[in-house]
What does this fold into?
Amino acid sequence: MARSADSLPVTRAGAAIVVVTVLAAVIGPAIVGVDPAFQDLPLRLEGPSPAHWLGLDELGRDIFARLLVGARISLLVGAVVVGTSATIGTLLGSIAGYYGGIVDDVVSRVSDILMAFPGLLLAIAVVAVLGPSLTNVVLALTLIGWVSYARLIRGQVLRVRELEYVQAARALGAATPRILARHIVPATLPALIVQATLGMGGAILAEASLSFLGLGVQPPTPSWGTMLNYGRSHLLDAPHLTIFPGLAIAVLVLGFNFLGDGLRDALDPTMSQGRRG
Amino acid sequence: MLRFVARRVALTIPVLLGVATLVFLLIHLIPGDPAQAMLGEAAPQADVDALRAQLKLDRPLLEQYVNFLGALLRGDLGTSLRTRTSVTAQIAERIPATFELAFAAMFVAMMVAVPLGIAAAAWRGSFVDHAAMAVAMGGMAIPNFWLGPLLAIVFAVELGWLPVSGRGGIDHLVLPAVSLGLALAAMLARMTRASLLEELREPYVRAARARGISRARAVIAHAFRNSLIPVVTILGLQFGAVLTGTVITETIFSWPGIGRLLIQSIGFRDYPLVQGCILLIAVTYVAVNLLTDLAYGWLDPRIRYQ
It folds into this structure.
């Protein structure tokens, strides 16, 4: 039996983390009022203090202010990658699942090939040739991201299209695009929402990984991954440069994972087997 | 079983061809003139022309593709632009380091995940279960590019117990293997718990309990062995994630493997080497997935007839 998402404390904790991060990203920089690009060079690498809660980085910039702006990048990349991947994946997955035949073969083979590359590797490859930038990170992550949505939706459509209400719509003469848009895709929404929530965490982690490797967002734009990358060279003298951006990534990803897990239990109990006993 | 093996191997061939095609096309995704991009904007035109001719980029695309596939079949991945040595030789030199790290990480993952998963399942719903699963959830969210430096701060810098970077004895392997293996451990712990709980519901376990066997013995001696099948499968399927993780872990700990070579070659715009590293990682991933599939079919005969 499905449980409501908000009945689980971890789901609530996840939702709280996400909401607080979104608020911090949207209104935080205005409230804090510190310029994330301002360099106080004499105080560079200074640790946390009442004036600078999380300390200053290698150029004397306020780490807290940079984390707030960095949250915008993380959330933006997550939202664009998940939004685009889910749209492309839903479109291709529903067409492949509904029509079968050659369309299904082509989508399945292309996704087989893309799935043959482990996780981030293809994104690294694409960014390596296109050059490091925020746009190319989004492009690379979308290129690998749509596959899991297409597979999920294809499976769901194969299940739903044989249900009686869909056959009834077909018998009543409804056009295929209408059947897909009005009857089939809405039935796949719970699974899609769960996948998208968990996908947000994955996309944020992937962007941070690419930026950490120097292949993502380029300085001076503050991205959590880039901040970690630069903090690495000050591991011995200023560990706070490494600790806070990493903590921010871990907490936000955890938030989306908690929320996704909770939604899975609430919206799609069949998928929660194996997660909970 | 032979038919099952033949079918699975046959299904892998088009995937491998697709992987090779995508890796071949990578170089053609470079905006503008690939030869100019590899040498930099300031390179003299004569050098650019020479490189274009060397890489046969001036030949028709189809001819380039056929040549690329032909060279691949001979194990020839081209020549590095920077060192002028064979890409295959450079990669072969780095393979042992990467595999050492990957297997050590998987060993760490199993050593952490199995006891954690068993404890969580055996004391289901208790504090132990919640704590183990919270640790697992945290482990999945912590990026290895954060965990690695944190472990280095504590165990190499503050305590001085372990070396901070490089490859050498087993002490050099500990920090990279732990930082790479912990995320996998988190996932495996959840899988072990779920799989064990499923087995515990089976009639043979209930029968064992009815015969007076203690719950601990029922878990360890009866249910655990069967619950391992999906766990080992996931371990095999996650080998790809571990391989990708080595790219980051090797960069953090200056581990001389393929992942670090890949990132270095991207920095030098040494695209033949980039192609070689990506191809090797992807092909290894496909091969391990195939072996996992075959092992699963061998362990569970029902799979062979699906």
